[in-house]
Amino acid sequence: MSDRPDFQPSTLVIHSNRSYENQSNSILFPIHQTATYIHESVGVTKGYGYSRGANPTVNALEQAIAAVEGTLHALCFRSGMAAITTLCFALLKAGDHVILSDVIYGGTTRLFHQVLKNFDIQYTYADTSDTESVRQAIRPNTRLIFIETPANPTLKLSDIEAISTLAHSYENILVAVDNTFLTPLLQNCLALGADISMLSTTKYIDGHNATIGGSLATHDEVITERLRFVRKIIGTIQAPFDAWLALQGIKTLPARLAIHCDHAAQVATWLEQHPRVVKVYYPGLDSFPQKALAERQQKAFGGMLSFELDATTEQSLRFMEALKLCTCAESLGSVETLITNPATASHCDIPLELRERLGISDRLIRLSVGLEAPKDLIQDFEQAFAAVFGDAR
Ligand SMILES: Cc1ncc(COP(=O)(O)O)c(C=O)c1O
User: Fold this and answer.
1) Are 98 and 136 in the same domain?
2) What is the four-CA torsion angle of 68, 69, 74, 77, rounded to 10 degrees?
3) Cβ atoms within 10 A of the Cβ of 227, count?
4) 214 lines ligand 1 (CB under 6 A)
5) Measuring from atom 10 of ligand 1, which residue has the nearest CA?
6) Is the pLDDT of residue 181 over 70?
7) End-to-end Cα distance, the chain
8) What is the pLDDT of residues 105-140, one digit of tens each?
9) CATH code at 332?
10) How many domains does the chain have?
11) 50: which strand partners?
12) How many percent of the chain have pLDDT more than 90?
């Protein structure tokens, strides 16, 4: 929409693709479930040639994501991992070096360690919560700093603005941020100076556990075209129906996020005062060591938290299994409250010693707080505490 900048995010996510061609005037953008497009005459199309390159429904989701990212350029992918993989294949070559946050989604670790290493893409981990550590990790061949903030699963934060300023003092280093935990509505990475904002749209953008998807957004047209080109070659574009479902999800993103944040704050505060809980990781708590950074670079504290019980690993896992309302399942950012044990799920490939050093102990529990009434969630925790530990304490 040409008048897009005048609208607030809650309006943009609903109306970002009003001006489309629509034969029936359906209020929902149609699903263009097609592999190919008719040529009006040989070689002449309406801009769409083949759905591995572009698709109108995918494009509609891209417009909505670009609107909330505050840019004109966003691309959607088959998954969050497809987005990161395309980013790496598009912007890196053999011999290049990447700096990764030491606390990061396990799938990203696996991509670099088990796939990209074979293509001579070098990488090292740095404690990106400390910008000086990032500086020390830079090598002559460093081309990308890939940070995740808040990081999965300990919510460790990295200063996007400081790292971007550092990277841009070199000639050829890009900064990409995995912003899956917050989305651009709660943390605008591009405005903070990052070159690329990455999302697993599987999470808050979709919000209903209906699809797997990912996105990349940037202000840079050259980067966009390179990403688009590689996406078409390696076939990582999102499927039209999945894009359409995510397009419905994103319309309620601002409303959902406000509730996720409110509920997560209530649950974090309740857990922190519980005698069976030894540690809660939530950026909105006074006990969170980087709360000041969260207040500076985030618009709110998000819907994710992790915690540890004063218990053995076995008891902690039994506590998770005793929950009746919180659902034990991978993923996050959905209307349902989801609970996982990163050590046995997303971060299972990381050696124990390293995991413990990063705060990802065997007994760490990660919670994606959903839209259920906090009172009901707290009651569920209470009954699980009672089931595993008895009422004493
Ligand atoms: C922070 C983060 N980044 C990326 C991914 C990968 O996204 P997807 O599962 O959509 O491929 C995940 C998935 O859990 C994630 O939590």
Assistant:
1) yes
2) -80
3) 25
4) yes
5) 80
6) yes
7) 58
8) 999 999 999 999 999 999 999 999 999 999 999 999
9) 3.90.1150.10
10) 2
11) 36
12) 91
